[in-house]
Amino acid sequence: MESTNRFNPKDTSHINLLSRLAFSYRYLDTDSLYSIGERVLKYSKDIDYAYGEIKGLDALGNYYYSKGNREKSMPLFKEALELAQEIENIECEVSLINTLAQNYSFEGNYAEALNWNLKGIDLAKEAGNQQMLSILNENIAGLYADQKDFKNALMFYDTVQKINRRLGNEVIDAETYSNMASLYKDAKDYKSAMFNINRSINTFEKNKIYDWLAYAYQVKGDIYLNQKKYKWALYWFDQSNMLFKHQIEDDRIKIELMNGMAKVYFGLEKDSLSLKYAEEGLTLSKKIKSLQGQIDCSETLYKVQKKNGNNPEALAYLETFKTLSDSLFMDKNKQSLSLLETKLHYEQEKQELIEANEAALAKQRNYIYFSIIILFILSIILFVIRRSENIQKKLNKKLKDKSEAVIQREAQLHEINKTNTKLFSIIGHDLRGPIGGLQGILKMFTDGDISTKELISFIPKLKTDVENISFTLNNLLSWGLNQLNGVVTKPKRVSLSYLVGNNIRLLSEIAKSKSIKIINQLPENPRIWADNNQIDIVIRNLLSNAIKFTPENGLITIEAQEKSDMWQVSVRDTGIGMTAEMQRSIFKDSSNITTYGTNNEKGTGLGLSLCKEMVHKNNGEIWVESIPRKGTTFYFTVPKAQSRYQKAS
């Protein structure tokens, strides 16, 4: 192009070629990456070529990133991302999100890295970019692998391989095999590690992909090193080192290589060479601010110096190793929880966005829905009252006709009267107030006392009232039918994870309003033998109580443990707790005291007695442990599903 008479350095075709040339130097000569990237950025700004500016900023950011200077690289990447979003270039946007995620991962901020990767996955799906979808899922697998969470890492690698099969690109396959080999090496599955690394090396050698080939040689050396096969390890490390000398430039991989060679020479009792490579790795780690590299190289230097009797030097390296290791260990513990919290938070935000869009579309129909819901609630209440009255009339008639059963019928009548009293008390106290409020607001609206805008401002309160009425009514119907022998227990195989997950989603918005985190720590897919609806009621009531009595920014944890032929489920909160006297009385049938939560939430006092009845009907037990001002844990047991064809007793 430059040899033609019409050549113009500011032509977009020339700028695009320069951009591709810059990135071809990424692992070969970072100085060339920088100088060409600067030219791309300058030419692009001169002609206001946004795509070229994005590529120029990306090239400069990669230069600083390779030098370990993330203070300079991160603003450049973010500026490029903002520009890509402005011109709606999804391909550039996904690529930059991937780069940012890798930056956060390298500096140890795994939660932020996971968040960016998840955003990138959604965008890649929208754009139909299968290659970036593979890369972003592989990034997440790497995050879990770094946390030694091999199970979750392999789950994401399974997704990556499915995408790779659709792509049909052997180089991308080989990159995944290299990373999986490193994972299997850390998990001490050397057979699988060697199988995967050999497949990747064959492809990289055939296609002359030198940067990945250097990494693959280094991983193969590590596999032999972990098995103390020092001569074979040295051979593959030397192969990798030759590529670093003549073909590529990547300090992050080189640190691992230098420390690996130091360990090999230490194993071969060539301490001077071990010292040389470990010191070179440590210097490089400090240069690019690699915390893990400093830890690994300091540990190797400590061992070499100690073996040679250089106690002051050995002690200095030991102190460095311990200090950095303790710092990294604490940080990784925090990051493990952050990974879980980030994933849950991201999924929750995504769901809220979907719900908000649906709510916007249904806004005009809300007024009609509220009226229908209120009529439906009143109809159900009327049905319960009429049903109770009919049962009472039948019992009175039987008392007159059968004098020999007077005592038995009197007892039944007494129990029915207790049920009615409790039903009317709950209806009058906990349902009449919210329903009256709803009627009042709607009457004011129909009479013209309030405007549509003012009515809309009442919607959050109306929504809360309706949810409280619905929740109370569900408990009320279940308890009323149970008391009147209207409920039949029908056990079957049930997924406990499904019931818990469903109720967490149901109550997530209430929990969010108090900034309460609900953590599901159930083991993988526990199966129970129970009535699906009854155990669902138990879980929902216990979770609702936990939210009600937990102050803002609290924590609720749901766990399950195997106990012989039962599952023991626990719902633990960090709420206000209860006294020993309260613990003795809360499950009594006669208890009907309305309690108030930390935000003055109302309850019927009905839920726990209902939970007790439902658990007993399913051959389980329920109990509570609590410390005032510390928190409360409710436990209940339920039979395990022994086989797929288990029958009800």
From TrEMBL:
<keyword id="KW-0472">Membrane</keyword>
<keyword id="KW-0808">Transferase</keyword>
<dbReference type="Pfam" id="PF13374">
    <property type="entry name" value="TPR_10"/>
</dbReference>
<dbReference type="Pfam" id="PF13424">
    <property type="entry name" value="TPR_12"/>
</dbReference>
<dbReference type="InterPro" id="IPR050736">
    <property type="entry name" value="Sensor_HK_Regulatory"/>
</dbReference>
<keyword id="KW-0902">Two-component regulatory system</keyword>
<keyword id="KW-1133">Transmembrane helix</keyword>
<feature type="repeat" description="TPR">
    <location>
        <begin position="54"/>
        <end position="87"/>
    </location>
</feature>
<dbReference type="InterPro" id="IPR036097">
    <property type="entry name" value="HisK_dim/P_sf"/>
</dbReference>
<keyword id="KW-0418">Kinase</keyword>
<feature type="domain" description="Histidine kinase">
    <location>
        <begin position="426"/>
        <end position="642"/>
    </location>
</feature>
<keyword id="KW-0175">Coiled coil</keyword>
<dbReference type="InterPro" id="IPR011990">
    <property type="entry name" value="TPR-like_helical_dom_sf"/>
</dbReference>
<keyword id="KW-0802">TPR repeat</keyword>
<protein>
    <recommendedName>
        <fullName>histidine kinase</fullName>
        <ecNumber>2.7.13.3</ecNumber>
    </recommendedName>
</protein>
<dbReference type="GO" id="GO:0016301">
    <property type="term" value="F:kinase activity"/>
</dbReference>
<dbReference type="InterPro" id="IPR019734">
    <property type="entry name" value="TPR_rpt"/>
</dbReference>
<dbReference type="InterPro" id="IPR004358">
    <property type="entry name" value="Sig_transdc_His_kin-like_C"/>
</dbReference>
<feature type="transmembrane region" description="Helical">
    <location>
        <begin position="367"/>
        <end position="385"/>
    </location>
</feature>
<dbReference type="InterPro" id="IPR003594">
    <property type="entry name" value="HATPase_dom"/>
</dbReference>
<dbReference type="Pfam" id="PF02518">
    <property type="entry name" value="HATPase_c"/>
</dbReference>
<keyword id="KW-0812">Transmembrane</keyword>
<feature type="coiled-coil region">
    <location>
        <begin position="343"/>
        <end position="405"/>
    </location>
</feature>
<dbReference type="InterPro" id="IPR005467">
    <property type="entry name" value="His_kinase_dom"/>
</dbReference>
<dbReference type="InterPro" id="IPR036890">
    <property type="entry name" value="HATPase_C_sf"/>
</dbReference>
